[in-house]
Amino acid sequence: MSWQAEELKEKGNAYFKKGEWASAETLYSQAIQKNSSNPLLYTNRANSRLKLESWRDAIDDCLRSIELMQENMKAYFYLAQAQISINHPNEALSSALMAYEMCSRSKQQTNNAQTISALVLRCKKAKWEIRERDRLRRRSVVLGDLMQKLEIDKKRDLDELDERVAKGGVGKIEASEERADIEKNASNRMGDLQTAFAISNPKELAIREVPDWLIDPITFEIMHDPVITKNGNSYERATIIEHLKRSATDPLTREILTINDLRPNIALRHACQEFMEQNSGWVYDW
């Protein structure tokens, strides 16, 4: 039965490459029926379900794949994407960090490091944004009520869209575009609202953000003593040196890298110091 599953998987891969996600999902499901003990079939189907925005089904596939194979970078990577899509940033961050850890200790050359690193940062920022919204609500009852109203409106619009999809009134691609518009518009409204309140009371309601260029791509914490590699990537000195003791490669590009290739990133260090001094009251919460 395993050879039949392999044939079905290859057919599914062909449809996936053509962007025919639903057909790919169907063939992967048939392959799983032939060989339900192959963890890679579940990650293949999870990836197609991510494309179809079937988030919870993708989560189920990833969890099943992890049950069958613990060291499963792809499953954790896909799992994080599905979890962040249903607004579960805590779980998504945990899954993304697992994928990043597995990627970083992989002996094989892989192009996934930068993509996974970007996902970790996205999850961490989403977690931070929720904490910030809660903080602002506690500081201003009016702001909290208005933001809650915007979230209710967004959920209503998304629920109505899901109903239209279920009834066949809108296709998958059109629904995906409309869902993205709803999310973007809601985010823009919340940002505008927070900005307006921050202007009215900057001491209490200022929006607190950490720029991406301050974040070490290994620990995802704010850098204090950044160094730059010959490839132009910047890291916190202590963390990149510790990494190079284990593997003489750039953790993002996987190109050969040694401690002697590191140079102080003086401009970035000054920027980090200035940011820490200006935001010392809260920045350690990041």
From TrEMBL:
U-box domain span: 209-282
The record's keywords, sorted A to Z, are: Isomerase, Repeat, Rotamase, TPR repeat, Transferase, Ubl conjugation pathway
Q: Which InterPro entries match?
A: CHIP_RING-Ubox, TPR-like_helical_dom_sf, TPR_rpt, Ubox_domain, Znf_RING/FYVE/PHD
Q: Which PANTHER family match?
A: E3 UBIQUITIN-PROTEIN LIGASE CHIP
Kindly list the GO molecular function terms attached to this UniProt entry.
peptidyl-prolyl cis-trans isomerase activity; protein-folding chaperone binding; ubiquitin protein ligase activity
Q: Which organism is it from?
A: Pseudovirgaria hyperparasitica
Q: Which GO terms describe its cellular component?
A: cytoplasm
Which named protein is this?
Answer: E3 ubiquitin-protein ligase CHIP
Q: Which Pfam families match?
A: TPR_11, U-box
Fetch the SUPFAM superfamilies from UniProt. Answer: RING/U-box, TPR-like
**Positions of TPR repeats:** 5-38
* A biological process from GO: protein polyubiquitination
Its recorded reaction(s) are: S-ubiquitinyl-[E2 ubiquitin-conjugating enzyme]-L-cysteine + [acceptor protein]-L-lysine = [E2 ubiquitin-conjugating enzyme]-L-cysteine + N(6)-ubiquitinyl-[acceptor protein]-L-lysine
Q: What is its EC number?
A: 2.3.2.27, 5.2.1.8
The question of whether Repeat is a record keyword is answered with yes
